Amino acid sequence: MPTKKTNDQHLLGVHCSISGGIYNAPIEGAKLGCRAIQLFTGSNQRWASKDISDDDAARFKDEMKAGGIEVAFSHTTYLINLAAPDKEILKKSIDTMAGELGRCSLLDIPFAVLHPGSPKEKGADWGIKRIADSINAIFDKTHMLKSKIALETTAGQGSSIGSRFEELARIRELVDDKSRIGFCLDTCHIFSAGYELRGENGYKKTWKEFRDFIGMEDLLAIHLNDSKFNIGLHKDRHANIGEGEIGDAGFANIMNDPKLVKIPMVLETPKGDNAAKQDSKNLRKLLSLVTV
Ligand SMILES: [Zn+2]
Ligand SMILES: [Zn+2]
Prior knowledge:
The model has no long low-confidence stretch (mean pLDDT 95). This protein has a single domain (12-288), classed as Divalent-metal-dependent TIM barrel enzymes (TIM Barrel, Alpha-Beta Barrel), CATH 3.20.20.150. It is of the alpha/beta class. The longest helix is centred in the first third of the chain and has 20 residues, at 87-106. The protein contains 9 helices and 10 strands. Bound molecules: zinc ion (2 copies). One zinc ion (ZN) binds next to loops.
């Protein structure tokens, strides 16, 4: 069932499938009443991705317009690890990320969301430097392009970098071209990393820290996911909106926060057997929490 655009304030949407063609993502998003969508521009599980033909790129842009979708952004393949100690994996990661930015550029996609990386046993300081060096190499390779990298906050599972806002800020500090670096905040991940979203005081404290270390200007997108596990457990398990530990209290804070109204926000919640039905339910749930 399509979600009516009952709330024209929020740039709200879902992660859409590209199955059958890249242009199917905006078609799916439009059916759900999305104003923002996220998609993979290639494989999410493999290194190699097919080139996008000019015809497909043109059709993607047409469908964006026809469907009234204002923002589309990409999520990179999960294989990329810009903190990889292994040189071969690092090289593949840099090349794959450069390819991703090339596809984004072809599709007029302003940024690609990326998990910063995991340095394994090398430690966070080493990892932060490795990630920044890798991003510098990627930006050198793609200096003619405008598409940005949006580093995503992580839950801090394993050795993953990015569960503290200060870690993300340190990466930016070491990146030469700061105009092409931004951030994507995932509600499940930050909550799992220990940032409170429920209640007034905890919510305010989280955003104060975000502003102090990162700043609102560089917040390019938000992933709206409830969390199966409670705060601070460093577990990345998404739940449907209102059915996890963040719950209505946390998402009501977000949906009624004036500073987030113009930030693209997409769901990455479980799709179940019927993705359209489940996405629509989660979107309606979010809109039902809007009181202002
Ligand atoms: Zn992600
Ligand atoms: Zn996410």
